[in-house]
Design goal:
The protein is mostly helical. About 60% of the residues lie in helices and about 0% in strands. It has helices at about 5-15, 25-45, 60-80, 80-95. The model has no long low-confidence stretch (mean pLDDT about 90).
């Protein structure tokens, strides 16, 4: 799914309810909540805080998905095209940090699938 498809799907779902989009500060509060849940799970899996006895592990995939959903809803509520925003930030990083890191020998810019 690309950004446009994600934004369209989130918009269809949210606008199918009378309440529609939340105000920006409410969305931000929800985003912070979801990032906190992601942080907690990473701390359980990779940090020094073990789960409580009987506490089930959360799926990182779903926690990251929750963060993305809320970010997409904030972008939609603000009229931001995420594809354009992400392209702009990638361009910024590629310019700004071009000489910051040690390049791999024999490799161009990496690209994950």
């Amino acid at each position: 799914m690309d950004f446009k498809e994600a934004q369209d799907r989130v918009d269809r779902w949210i606008t199918s309810f009378e309440e529609g989009y939340w105000p920006p500060l409410a969305i931000l509060a929800r985003l912070i909540e979801e990032v906190g849940e992601l942080s907690r799970e990473i701390n359980h899996q990779y940090g020094s805080k073990p789960k409580k006895d009987g506490e089930r592990p959360a799926e990182l995939e779903l926690e990251i998905g929750d963060v993305l959903f809320v970010l997409v809803s904030l972008a939609n509520q603000q009229g931001i095209d995420l594809g354009r925003a992400f392209q702009r930030v990638l361009d910024k990083y590629e310019r700004r940090d071009r000489d910051r890191w040690t390049p791999k020998q024999g490799a161009g810019p990496s690209r994950s699938a």
